[in-house]
Design goal:
By secondary structure, the chain is α+β, with helices and mostly antiparallel strands. It contains 3 helices and 6 strands; from the N terminus they run αβαβαββββ. The strands form 2 sheets. A 4-stranded antiparallel beta sheet has the order 1-2-6-3.
């Protein structure tokens, strides 16, 4: 397993209609490093966003899709998503507040 620092774990937030509806329940969705585990994701969210206390983390591995361009067959890159649920008394994450 790679030695990941907390700022290498979270890659970018997921901004979709479904992920925006999760925000009412204090659930935030991020693309994360495929080598990161749940405890590393929890630590990264708590360090990067002040006042955020993580209740639980759900992760999912996304397999790359098969793509064709003529006779050439390839595959898109695999990725990993994490849905982070905050506790009731924690502060909201500010990057999602303007959306």
């Amino acid at each position: 397993m790679a030695d990941l620092k907390y700022y290498d774990v979270i890659l970018k937030p997921v901004v979709t209609e479904k992920s925006m509806s999760f925000m009412a329940d204090k659930k935030y969705t991020f693309y994360v490093n495929p080598d990161a585990n749940k405890s590393q994701i929890k630590e990264a969210v708590e360090k990067m966003f002040d006042g955020a206390k993580v209740k639980k983390v759900n992760t999912m591995n996304i397999v790359g899709k098969n793509k064709r361009r003529g006779m050439t067959v390839g595959r898109t890159a695999a990725s990993k998503k994490a849905i982070v649920q905050l506790t009731e008394d924690s502060k909201d994450i500010e990057i999602f507040s303007g959306l």
